[in-house]
Amino acid sequence: MKFTINKYYLLGLSLMAVTLFTGCAKFVDKPPLDNFSNDEYWTSETNVRTYNWGFYEMFTGFGTGTNGDFYFSWLSDDQAPSGFTNFVLNAPASDGRWTFANIRKANIMLENIDKVPMDDEAKNHWKGVARFFRALAYFRLVKVFGDVPWINKSLDISEDDIIYKPRDSRALVMDSVLSDLNFAYANLRQEDQANTVNKDVALALISRVGLYAGTYRKYHTELSLPDAEKFLTASKDASTKLMTAGYTLNADFRTVYSSLDLSKDPECILYKQYEPGVLTHSVIGYTNSSTTMAGLNKNAVESFVCTDGFPIGVSTHYEGDADLDHTLANRDKRLLETISDFLCYKTHLVNGLSASTGYRPAKFLQPADENQLAPYNSTDAPIFWLPEILDNYAEACAELDDMGKYTITQADLDKSVNKLRARSGVPALQVVGHQGTAIGGVAFTDPDKDSDVPSLIWEIRRERRVELMMCGFRFYDLMRWKKGEKLDNTKIQISSWGLKCLLPINWI
């Protein structure tokens, strides 16, 4: 009897164990209650919109610490960092910029949009958004790394043949980028929610990408890259559309860089919004501090023309650089709005301020910001804005003209860079013959002009430099123009560190 009881007892325990383990297995197989499965997520346009918000972190703007596109882009011939930087020649084992996270995110979105119950207009709009951000991510990769693998699908971890595929040529990748952007422009809504990607934002990126890729292909002849004309024409055409889209210049050059609210700024196409206690940055704090600032170098200061419109090497209005009052006298207003009207040095502080060159950046200051300290600044940052578009248009026209693919006219200059010059109190730049320049009918050539660059292109590049100084463009401009030697102090001996204002050596 005892044996019988134990037998049934053990049998019962065994059945209970099977039941418990089976129930356990079913329980642990259930998806988490606080997460959507892929199929559950793609069920409404609201969910698609929520998914897309993550892309907007790609727009750095003023950043949050010292990672912003503005002021902190010290690797150029415009600013002198407060200390020397040693560059390692060997390739690093890793680089945080080698990331495909947003490309994968865009590919996942593209693969799932057709599942969402919404009309074709909505589906095409959101496909345009995904392809816009995929294009932006690839554009940034190409600028840094050149050839990169083009991937247009979300990958499974087992797809080693694609994950470890060789790099595709930058020509193929940039052609694909332009294709993505053309699709985006054709399908994006003209207006969706305020300050989000729309047709105008797509045009702005085409303007930027087309100019970069077109000039890179033109000047880097050693790579035998085709279709420079195609990209430059895309930039010119996109810029033309934006120049007639209702955007207008602010009366003041600094407004777009120092505004607490860019929502109604007439020249802003897209901006990054900052709010106290929510998202803030450090640009004001780092340019209004006793910590040594990365001052403008002397070459950058000398790139601003005089009030008669001529470069300092030609102008009779230039008073020299014996002191800052003379340096700033009779100069383009943008110079007075880019740097302070007093010098501040490392060892001879003025108002408690210190700059590496004495020329202290003032472009981003906003006294009305409730907190001037880093990292609590809350001015908004432009992402795409009209002055860049005007500069892009003029340069694309001039480059196409130099290639014999377009004839640049005075009207082209008057509706682009001459609007920027007029706002800054500078006479119009005139085109004379093939790529020559004049002011008020007086032909001139800057004695500092690079010998391999026509005068017209040189002056348009100058306009771009002074208008967009400390906005994150200069390094990649030098790269696409094949002018990396301007960063090489072993050749020119006047690197960004060496181009200091004329000060006693013990003051620097």
From TrEMBL:
Ranges of residues in domain SusD-like N-terminal: 100-211
Domain named RagB/SusD: residues: 295-490
Signal sequence coordinates: 1-25
Compartments in which it is found: Cell outer membrane
Keywords: Cell outer membrane, Membrane, Signal
Family: Belongs to the SusD family.
Protein name, as recorded: RagB/SusD family nutrient uptake outer membrane protein
